[in-house]
Amino acid sequence: MPVPSLLAVFAHPDDESLSAGGVLARHAAAGARTAVVTATWATDTLRAAELADALQILGAGKPRMLGYADARVPESAPGRARFCDAQLDDAVRGLVEHIREFRPDIMVTHDAYGGLPGHPDHVHTHRVTMLAAQAAGLGQLYPDAGAPWQPRALYLATHPRSAVPALRDVIGARKAVYSVPDEQVNATVDVGPWMEQKIAAVLAHRSEVERGALPGVIAGLPPDARERLFATEWYIRHASMTAASAQTELTV
């Protein structure tokens, strides 16, 4: 059985590597088509160039960017609305175009909290992706955005409550930490064999390393700590989107 194609949708350059880098690398290594849509930052920025390097490492093609401004960095997309402030219909339409063009079997995005930090762009990316994943299969919605295509499954990148204490030691108390009850996590993926690619992709976001954001924290960890903390990725499999979706799973 062929490995399902995978389209990841995340808020910022580096979210793809931090949240789903292992799964992206694993699917690509198995021969699946993989790609990433990033909601914020313009294509001519340094962070877009870093994203291109990270995606090359993960085997996930070239950047696909919606081009909105980061909620906290207006210069990320001069002249464009903040993603959180943009017209919802416009954002959904833009993502539907990518879904219909790429035609993924599986999609991955942030959970409803927006992951550990609860960043507003992460939360909004979750909302837009949930809407777009459904709308992409409905031909009467956005008829000029391509032929309808319905992904078979949608996975939400998350963290179980039991994993938070160790992660909090790394990211520190300076950030809010959101997690879900362990029983809600129904896809636990060992990405240990792809850790080298995952960490290399994280570190490709050099400006985030230099400013001491999470990629910079990871850069300062010894290899055994990186392995212990980041060799597992957790997902919530969203309710079935099609009758065939029960046979479409993340490669675990």
User: What is the CA-atom radius of gyration, in angstroms?
Assistant: 17 Å
**Total of DSSP H or I helical runs spanning 4+ residues:** 9
The pLDDT mean sits at 93
Q: Separation of termini?
A: 14 Å
Low-confidence spans: pLDDT under 50, at least 5 residues? none
Structure characterization notes:
By secondary structure, this protein is α/β, with parallel strands linked by helices. The chain is built from 9 helices and 7 strands, in the order βαβαβαβαβαβααααβ. The protein has helices spanning 15-29, 46-58, 88-102, 120-135, 164-171, 195-203, 206-210, 214-219, 223-230; strands at 6-10, 34-40, 64-68, 106-110, 153-158, 187-190, 232-237. It has a 7-stranded mixed sheet with strand order 3-2-1-4-5-7-6, sandwiched between helices. β4, α4 and β5 form a beta-alpha-beta unit.
Quick tags:
single chain; 252 residues; alpha/beta; 7-stranded mixed β-sheet; 9 helices; globular
List the helices and strands and how they pair.
Layout: E1 6-10, H1 15-29, E2 34-40, H2 46-58, E3 64-68, H3 88-102, E4 106-110, H4 120-135, E5 153-158, H5 164-171, E6 187-190, H6 195-203, H7 206-210, H8 214-219, H9 223-230, E7 232-237
Parallel strand pairs: 1-2, 1-4, 2-3, 4-5
Antiparallel strand pairs: 5-7, 6-7
Helix pairs in contact: 1-2, 1-6, 2-6, 3-4
